[in-house]
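Predict structure. Chain length: 100.
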Amino acid sequence: MAIVEVTITPLGTGTPSVSHYVAEVHKVLEQAPEALKYQLTPMSTIIEGELQDILSVIQRMHEVPFEKGALRVSTSIKIDDRRDKKASMEQKLKSVQEKL
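Prediction complete.
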């Protein structure tokens, strides 16, 4: 199972505010048929699931700002794909908290 951090930034919108774009992008994630867990953060979205499913939904998310009038979209993706043992968002946080 992979954990992916994604940030989708619309450019060329004429305003510094992007919250309405973020909300529309997040709706795609909420309605995704893929079995994914996700967490919206102030700076990005964290998604947990099968890598192919995550990449598929990110592709759909990337298109949203264009559909809403953005002239350019920058999407950054960071992938943590651990295969030696099962990983999850909760497990990663717990591991750090145990060491604090």
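Summary: The first helix runs from residue 19 to 30.
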